[in-house]
Amino acid sequence: MQVLPSISLRPFIRHYLFIENPVRTPIRFFTDGNPGIVFCDGEIILEGNYLPPAFAYGQVTHYKDLYYSGSLLIVVFRPYGLHALTGIPATALKDQFIDLSLIFKKPPAREDVNEFFSSLQPHTCSLTQATIDYIDQQKGQLSIPQLQVFTGYQERQLERRFKESVGISPAKYCNIVRTHTFLKSLHKNKRITPLVFENGYCDQSHAIKDFKKLTGLTPRHYLHNNYPLASNFLSRNCTI
Hints:
Arc Repressor Mutant, subunit A; alpha+beta; Jelly Rolls
């Protein structure tokens, strides 16, 4: 179940995601371009290690296999949202799963998250916000020269600002958005070939390569062997 944050937080938080499962379940997790904070009333095991009951994660550059049981609340930020609300450079959180007590002196209880984040003074990053919105609207089908025209920045300047607030390059974010658009299209139309060209790929092999790099699965495997709890959070019904 997804719940929207208060109106004042919507520029920074996409939604609150609630997932519940009493049985330990294998999960394939991969990036959707958004950082997050997780509150777990249960357990999450990643690479043989138990994660803290409350932790933050930044941009994830490689898919992860984990196990979880219990009740989860995931605060799904917009790509720059965690940086805007904490001031922490997004590059410092890249591929990290950090105990929330190391970020906030008094971390919020899960029932107080909306009130807690509403009390913070966000850092302004209006150009990054506008650029993210533009990429999302264009479904990731943009080149760096097109983004330079949109922002008025040179490539290096654009990449530096993007990495500070988002954690990855604009080209990488475009690729994530395009792949997720392709992924969502698969649920509506399981015929891959027409979707390839609709999503701006030059051929099917390129689309499958990007999809597998992001998820670790082929589109066919994704459709037939997994149950999506969220777009990037799959309950696996095969051995991992």
